[in-house]
Target: Pilus biogenesis operon protein
Amino acid sequence: MRSRAARGQSLVEASLGLMVFVTILLFGIYFAEVGALTLKVQEAANFALWDATGRVHHNPEAGDWGRRGVVADAEAEASGRYADFDGRERMGGTGMPIQQAIARAQPIQVQCEAELPAGVPRLGPAAAGPALDAAMNMGTQGMSCTASSRLRASRIGRFMEDRFHTAHRRAAQAFTVCAAGRASGDRCTGRFGIMLDDWGLAGVAEGRACPLSIDTGAPCANGDYYHWTERIYRANGGGGGAGSALAGLVGADSVNEDQFFMSFHGEEDNYEENIGATHAGGQSRWETTPFEAPNIPSYNAGRHNHWLGMAR
Model:
């Protein structure tokens, strides 16, 4: 009788121990999966931010800066890539839940706004001056993003559904995971933010050369730079009237001082172009940064193999 009682006690103890062990094991796996999926939700929001920085933000010729459409495009790209929590390719928004060993997650939803988060300083007349503010048709100075997903535990079974496991059942219920902060009423209010655009020239098109052009800029492959520079020239009064006044004093023909000349060349052109023997003692080269004329020693800046003509 004593031996049978001992065996019965061992069976009860083993059953109770297995119930505790299996519960800990299942929820250990579940919480690990929740942690990994939460990191992917954060990654989706940050992907949208950094994807936006690689897009075309401005058109200086049109005075268009901080295009708001960039934010919507980045949001769509992030939502398409992270619908399945992977991010390596677009899934086309399948809408299918993701099932892991225990955790079941709805596709990530990325939400971005063409506004900086609250409390982030804005660029405006007070910071940049009214002239800059008026010259730039700025759609947005930055963006803010968050991402979310609904997670719950599945494949748990019904062994924990008695009145002693209320806390466990509650832990297995669906809840919202946010990229930034915790959900408030299943809404993600926290956001990551980033300022967009450098309000300057960048990229291949905005780095091309411009042959010498007068007023039109037609042959220039870098129209943004040409027209932007011309606007600055016009805004500062153009050429003025000193040359015409001098020509009048000596009886010479007046000159059109409002003509805008521009030549822009980089290292790939050795900072120069051939325009014929028209200047600097018959030199045929029009140089754009420090002038160098081999037959005029005083103009030899010694800039060969030096960036912008300055020795390193």
Summary: DSSP finds seven helices and 14 strands in the chain. The mean pLDDT is 77. The two ends are 98 Å apart (CA to CA). Residues 274 and 285 are 5 Å apart (CA to CA).
